[in-house]
Write a structure and sequence with these properties.
By secondary structure, this protein is α/β, with parallel strands linked by helices. It folds into two domains: 17-141 and 381-388, Enolase-like, N-terminal domain (Enolase-like, domain 1); 145-367, Enolase-like C-terminal domain (TIM Barrel). The protein contains twelve helices and 14 strands. α2 (99-114) runs antiparallel to α3 (117-139) and α3 (117-139) packs across α10 (296-309). One of its GO terms (molecular function) is magnesium ion binding.
Length: 394
């Protein structure tokens, strides 16, 4: 089941918008320190941006998820140029949400033929976000407002994510001084190490700080139940991806019944029916689609609406550069409801240079303002030292 294209009056152009060009840009910046997860280490920070322009010269920006495998950024950019361009260049739409089902229908056979549904979904997600940015800019509205957000305003609650298992309290304390009030620790490195890290973070940040943990699919059901039991004393707001994303809903439900913890997940789901399964699981409290991995803005706003309607928290996942982060924040502002947007705590020049002006955190919140579209634009010249030349292949 694909996300439906919204056809309300919000965001419908007076005349169809024709796309005249699509470009992709690849960047790599050193990861200092490397980003550690239970399944691998990121030694650099990649980013793939997509830019679309219409016949009037207006432009929109999107970002394609590309953290893994390490060679994935260049590959995804080539896919975007070879297959993304024919999907959109010369095409016209009256609403950005109309493009996703068109793109998906045209790439379905290629997904089956290549076995690369993930990268192809990701290039569609980046293009979809760029189209939404373009349409919102043309309308002169911030994306959160263009999507119909109004009740919660433009303030988005954020948390510092990606906190590594090596001296995590040092980075957490630094982020607290920057204005963060919520923090997520990477776990799955052995229960003794995980517990010791949580203890140091709680001692450093105090009882008032909001703490979450992310296992990155590290555990079996039995391991998750055992590990979760050791984490109960730290007042955690949620336990993220304790199981593999492919685990049946019955396992997630059984784990929720066994542990008095909110369970979070969804960043590695790539099907609306599967999101519906997640949302329906009792105890699956936090739903976390990734705007650069699947669905773009079209899919993620639909997941957000279904999740919030069911009483779940919608908390966008993001661990990349600045365009995807801005899109995640606009989605959260549009969806409203309780929850947070993830902001990587580690240094990443691509987050800042590729989304100007940068974000400012004040007492745990970011305000998006009234600038049209995503409200940010990449500074390609400033990021030139990190640019990677990608040879287009026929």
């Amino acid at each position: 089941m694909m996300p439906r294209a919204h056809t309300t009056d919000i965001g419908v152009a007076d005349q169809p918008v024709r796309i005249d060009s699509l470009d992709a840009f690849v960047f790599r910046a050193p990861a200092v320190p490397p980003v550690q997860t239970s399944f691998g280490i990121m030694h650099d920070r990649p980013a793939v941006l997509v830019r679309v322009r219409d016949r009037d010269g207006a432009e929109g920006w999107g970002e394609i998820w590309c953290n893994f495998p390490t060679v994935g950024a260049e590959h995804r950019a080539r896919l975007a140029l070879a297959y993304g361009r024919p999907l959109v260049v010369g095409k016209s739409w009256s609403h950005p949400g109309q493009a996703w089902p068109d793109m998906h229908a045209r790439l379905q056979v290629l997904m089956l033929q290549t076995g690369e549904a993930g990268p192809l979904h990701q290039l569609m997600a980046g293009i979809d976000t760029a189209l939404w940015d373009l349409f919102a800019r043309r309308a002169g509205k911030p994306l959160w407002q263009y999507l119909g957000g109004d009740g919660g305003g433009d303030a988005v609650q954020v948390y510092a994510s990606g906190i590594n298992p090596t001296e995590p309290e040092v980075l957490a304390a630094a982020k607290a001084r920057e204005g963060y009030r919520a923090f997520k620790l990477k776990v799955g490195f052995g229960i003794e190490r995980d517990v010791a890290n949580l203890r140091r973070m709680r001692e450093t940040l105090g009882d008032e700080a909001t703490l979450m943990v992310d296992a990155n699919q590290a555990w079996s059901f039995e391991e998750a139940r055992e590990a979760g039991g050791h984490l109960l004393d730290f007042g955690l707001t949620w336990l993220e991806e304790p199981l593999r994303a492919s685990a049946p809903p019955s396992q997630w439900q059984a784990l929720a019944q066994a542990l008095p913890l909110r369970l979070a997940g969804g960043e590695n789901v790539s099907d609306m029916a599967r999101y519906d399964d997640f949302i329906a699981v009792p105890g699956m409290s936090v739903i976390q689609p990734d705007v650069g991995k699947w669905g773009g803005v079209t899919g993620c706003i639909e997941v957000a609406r279904r999740a919030t309607a069911a009483g779940r928290w919608y908390c966008p996942h993001w661990l990349g550069a600045g365009i995807g982060l801005a899109a995640s924040m606009h989605l959260k502002a549009a969806a409203g409801g309780p929850g947070y947007v993830e902001v990587d705590a580690n240094p990443n020049p691509l987050r800042d240079l590729l989304a100007q002006p940068g974000l400012r955190v004040e007492d745990g919140y970011v305000r998006l303002g009234q600038a049209p579209g995503l409200g940010v634009t990449p500074d390609l010249e400033a990021a030139r030292e990190f640019a990677v030349r990608v040879v287009e292949l026929g």
